Amino acid sequence: MAPKLGYLLPTRERIMEGRPEVAPMLTAAEKAEDLGYDSIWVGDSVLARPRHEPISLLAGVAARTKHVELGTAVLLPALRNPVMLAHQVATVDQISEGRLILGVGIATDVPNIRAEFAAASVPFEKRVGTMLEGLRLCRALWTGEPVDWDGRWPIKQGVLAPTPSRPGGPPIWIGGSVEAAMKRAGGEFDGWFPSTPTAEGWGADFGKVQGFAKDAGRNPADVTGACYVTITLDENESRAVERIDHFFEQYYNRPPEAMKRRSAIYAGSAAGAAEWLAGYADAGVEHFVLRFAGDGERQLEQFAKIRSNLGW
After folding, report:
1. How far apart are CA 248 and CA 254, in angstroms?
2. pLDDT one-digit tens code per residue, 66-103
3. Domain locations along the chain
4. What are the pLDDT digits (tens) for 188-230?
5. What is the pTM of this model?
6. Could you tell me the end-to-end alpha-carbon distance of the chain, in angstroms, rounded to an integer?
7. Topology of domain 4-310, per CATH?
8. Which of 218, 233, 256, 292 has a CB 3.0–4.6 Å from the CB of 245, allowing a cystine?
9. Cα 137 to the chain's mean position, in Å?
């Protein structure tokens, strides 16, 4: 089966450019659907890298699209009360009629993200346990049955309504490339969603995820293999590299080389991009989420052509 292609809306970029208006992004989402993209995605950050709140924005995208899946790339559940999150997610899944995917993560250990957790009164060192318990609580509430919960968020006979359109709630994909993250993905999540620098590395790690799924008594085929990639297209490779380096410096305020060592990144020609993506698809990637560095509208159209040439 051909892999799916998703488009990440440039929420962070628009804030950096001083253009926070939502209407152009909703139009871009509609355009991506018309061009044949399979999914629309939104990133998450509150204070560390300010941008639009993802669940709210996806509600707008859900109302303006008909077929594409909608996802978070990635949401930081530990920053949110899970009872409220479960309610928001269920409502957006109803708006979209079951098209939502919840991509989640634990956040990188850097000073501005630690400060973001402190501002939300969430202990950074406890973010993994907070996230895992919160998501288990969300899934319990999504059943629509009375929930008793003796944990961080005490609940007695709590009933959530509406429940999500999709029975049991939207699939939850988790990022992360360390072994503990891969074990969590295989053991209890619906997808694995890293940004791995090479196709070979992604394939080897996904094999581990599938092994962990089998160890947990699950069918490895039930875990979707996805990849978050950052791309800039230019037939002049040096210009493409310069553009993507500038993008990373502005976006993360960190040296671009630090990001290149840990992320799936391509800068160059359209033909080279097709070959690069095909390598990941051959390694088993079922769903790509594309973040475009610079001139996203042009590249959105270019990738629709690349996809056609790949026969996807």
Report:
1. 7
2. 999 999 999 999 999 999 999 999 999 999 999 999 99
3. 4-310
4. 999 999 999 999 999 999 999 999 999 999 999 999 999 999 9
5. 0.97
6. 9
7. TIM Barrel (3.20.20)
8. 256
9. 21
